[in-house]
């Protein structure tokens, strides 16, 4: 029995970009601190003696990162333990792929494959329930959807056009066809954008996730159109540009809060003496179906180095 598309509001929580940055930084620090276990004999006295020495020196990033197939993993990832306790059928797994400004259209298929592949490895599952894509520079104006055409004009310098979105959508359709993503969806689409987008798709989005500012009422035109097209509307509070170049530089740089991966003033490595550009972020959430409890939640992010 079905009542058609509905609007499901997600509870407000910590802004996604702050949550992401804190998560990345804490994961890096935990990996660096794990290095001190190699320098102690396990005793409390030895630990305190070594702790001040470890904190006073720079831990080489080669000790807590991994280099494989031309990719530097920061920090190294251990996929040996499953991220879930129960059987796969007990979970509803949602993944959101944020394609960041400047991402090459020709590389997005690989980006989507890489992002979903990492989540599958992390959770030890063969598939996810829902994959949502967030296109660069696209935002939803909840005040007045009639202003969407004007909003799209303002976005045209940074946002994808419909043709680029449709071409990117092919990557999600392939993941769906291969059984890796049981459902696929879009983010920040009003009724006009949906109407332009849908004719170019083979597999239509089952979900449209929108960011409604200050819990405003979802435009009636979108509600009616989504119902007509059998698209479920979800709300969220994610940031569109979730990870900036400056933030990546700060996270990986040699500053006080940096990971010491990118070359700093006192380093001589030529390999990492380059600029960095974030390409994508993927957010995953595993919810226990019968209890609605989040058991596992996390992020992966990818960036490219260039001269």
Percent range for β-strand residues = 15-25%
Question: Mean of residue pLDDT?
Answer: 82
Got a strand count? Answer: 10
* Fraction of helical residues: 25-40%
Biggest sheet, spatial arrangement of strands: 1-8-7-6-5-4-9-10
The total count of helices amounts to: 8
Instruction: Report how far the terminal alpha carbons are from each other.
Output: 57 Å
What's the main sheet like? 8 strands, mixed
What is the alpha-carbon Rg in Å? 21 Å
- What is the N-to-C order of secondary-structure elements (H for helix, E for strand)? EHHEEEHEHHEHEHEHEE
List segments where confidence is low: pLDDT < 50 over at least 5 consecutive residues.
1-14, 46-51, 146-157
By secondary-structure content and strand pairing, the structural class works out as alpha/beta
The dominant shape is globular
């Amino acid at each position: 029995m079905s009542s058609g598309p509905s609007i499901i509001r997600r509870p407000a929580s910590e802004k996604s970009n702050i949550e992401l940055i804190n998560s990345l930084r804490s994961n890096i620090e935990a990996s660096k601190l794990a290095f001190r276990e190699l320098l102690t004999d396990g005793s409390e006295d030895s630990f305190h003696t070594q702790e001040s020495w470890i904190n006073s020196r720079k831990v080489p990033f080669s000790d807590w990162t991994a280099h494989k197939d031309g990719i530097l993993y920061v920090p190294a990832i251990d996929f040996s333990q499953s991220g879930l306790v129960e059987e796969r059928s007990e979970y509803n797994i949602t993944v959101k792929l944020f394609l960041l400004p400047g991402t090459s259209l020709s590389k997005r298929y690989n980006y989507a494959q890489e992002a979903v592949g990492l989540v599958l490895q992390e959770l030890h599952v063969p598939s996810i329930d829902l994959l949502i894509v967030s296109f660069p520079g696209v935002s939803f104006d909840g005040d007045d959807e009639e202003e969407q055409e004007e909003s799209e004009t303002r976005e045209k310098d940074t946002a994808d056009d419909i043709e680029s979105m449709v071409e990117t959508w092919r990557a999600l359709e392939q993941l769906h066809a291969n059984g890796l993503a049981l459902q696929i969806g879009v983010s920040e689409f009003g009724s006009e954008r949906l109407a332009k987008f849908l004719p170019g798709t083979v597999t239509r989005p089952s979900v449209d996730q929108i960011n409604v500012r200050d819990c405003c009422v979802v435009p009636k035109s979108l509600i009616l159109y989504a119902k007509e097209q059998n698209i479920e509307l979800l709300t969220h509070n994610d940031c569109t540009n979730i990870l900036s170049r400056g933030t990546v530089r700060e996270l990986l740089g040699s500053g006080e809060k940096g990971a010491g991966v990118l070359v700093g003033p006192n380093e001589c490595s030529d390999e990492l003496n380059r600029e960095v550009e974030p390409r994508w972020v993927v957010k995953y959430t595993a919810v226990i179906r019968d209890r609605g409890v989040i058991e596992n939640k996390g992020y992966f992010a990818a960036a490219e180095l260039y001269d």
